[in-house]
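This protein record is not my work; I was only asked to verify it. The record follows directly below this note.
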Amino acid sequence: MPVVDSITFQPHPACKNFNDLTGKVYDLLMVLGYAGSDKWWNGLWFCRCICGNVKAITTVRLTGTRPHTKSCGCFQANFKHGHTKHNSPSTPEYSAWEGMNQRCSNPNTHRYDRYGGRGITICGRWRGEHGFQNFFSDIGLRPSPGHSLDRWPDPNGNYEPNNVRWATQAEQNRNRSGNHNITFQGETMCVTDWAKRLGLSLSGLRHRLKNWDVGRALTAPVDYAHVHKRRA
């Protein structure tokens, strides 16, 4: 299938068993949307490769058990360490992966003391010969130039599939290890975001947390705090 410069998504077939692959990642490819079918009525999907190219690929080549398509062709053309055979610049996804590895394993790297130096590690799946491919398969394309790699929901945890996301700078700031994060009923947010959720001032929520248990502080009606304060 050829690499395409522009794409026009097609409506999904009116089929009860149709499997929408949009948003899924296969090796170095992320599915953008349905592209119709080829002359043999095989389903086609527009996929963006890690190198940036967009290519129409059949369903079976993405999901089949036999050898399948891993990239737009750049992988077979000596794709290595985020570069194509044309020596294009490293992709943002590869740069993030490489930076993660350096911070955790190279004592000469800036800020090593905040990562590898204090025990932050990278899961085995994201290291070694196929480490980058596995990382990209798990994390996917960077959503925008404003996103960067973030350990979440545990900012003190390790780099692993369930604790890493692409985050905006605002999300990164909220997730700093020095922030006061609160987990309640399976949801973790910083105090500032909980205050916004509840319609309280930051000082009001802090007053609650100082005097009440977390459950009561996050569930009591807003005006209840004022009544309690007047009676105290």
Residues 92-105 form the longest helix (14 residues). Residues 90-177 form one domain.
